[in-house]
Predict the structure.
Amino acid sequence: MTNDAPLPVFERLGLPDTGLSRDAYAYAERATPDFVFFHSVRSYVFARAHARHQGLRAGTDYDDELLFLSCILHDIGLSEEGNGDQRFEVDGADTAAAFLRERGVEERRIAITWDAIALHTSDGIAGRKGTEVRLAQAGIGTDILGIRRESLPAGLADEVHALLPRMDLAYALSDAIVTQANSKPQKASPMTFPGALLRHHLPYGAQPTWYDLLAVAGWGDKPVGTVARRRAQTPEQVGAMFMEYLETGDIEGLVSLYEPHAHFVPTPGTHLVGTEAIRKALQQLIDSGARLKLELREIRQVDDIALVSNTATLTGVDPAPVISTTTEILRRQPDGGWVHAVDDPFFS
C-alpha cells in the first residue's frame, strides 16, 4: 500500500504519479527537514525543465521516474536515518538504494539512482554517467547555485517557489552538512565537498589543504625548484629564524615564517595582509640593510596557538635604533612547524 502525497503538489507540478514516486516522496517528506525536502522536489522540476530545453523526451530519452527518485532522495544522507559514517552523498546513495531494494526495484535502476545521488556534487563526473545522472545534477545545481537558471521557462521558478519556499536553502543546507561533519569528522575528509565546507568553519590550518597533506606524506617531496627549508619546531624558534633570515637576506625564508593570509605591521599604521604584501615589505627591510634583535619577554601557548611578545631592537633603518614591544600570534601548521598568523611589532 502506498502513501498518498498531497495531491496539489503532484497535480500542480506534474510529478511522476506512480506508486514508487509517491512512496519516495512521502519518505523524503517524513525523513528530512522542510528546506531539504522542498529543495529535493524543486530539483526534479528544474531537471525536467532542462531535459525539455534540450529536446529530451521522458520515456524515450530518459527514465522520468528514475530522475524523480534521484532528485527526491538525493539529500536523504542529511536525514537522521541516512547519517552514517561516509560523506553525506554516499550515505544518501546507500540509504536510497536500500529504500528502492526493499520495494523490489531492479538492480540496474538502483545503480543509476545510486550514481546520481553519490555523484551530485562531483562536477565533471556526474555528466558522464548517463542521462538521468546528468539531469539530476543539473536540476540540483540550478536550485542551489542558480546554474542555468536562465534556460528555465519564464515564471517556472516563481511558481515553484510560491509552492515550495526556499527557506534560505543554500546556507541551511551547508549548515546541515557541517553539523554532520563536526560530529563525525570521517564524513568530511579534506579533499571532499563536505571537507571544503567544514574548512570554512574551523580555525585556519585545522583542516589540511592538499599541500598540507603532501607535506606530511612522509616521502620527502618538495615543491619543484624550491629550496628545502627547516621549520620552527617551537614558537621560540620563529624569532631566531627571523633574525637569521633577515641577516642573510633570505626573502623566501622570511616569507616562510608567515601563513598565506597572515597580518603584518611593518611600520606604525601600516597593516598588511597576505603573502605578496608581506613579501614586498620584508624585501624592503632586507634592501635597507636592517638588522633585528629579538629578546623574548613572554609566551603563552594553548594547543596549536601561541601568543608571543618580544623586545625588538631594529637597527640600520633610522639613525637611532627603533625599540618596540612586539605582539605576535603564532600557529602550528599541519606539518608541525610554527609560523606567524599575526606579527605586530607596534601593538600596545
About this structure: The longest strand covers residues 291-302. The chain has two domains: 7-199, 235-344. The domain at 235-344 is CATH 3.10.450.50 (Nuclear Transport Factor 2; Chain: A,).
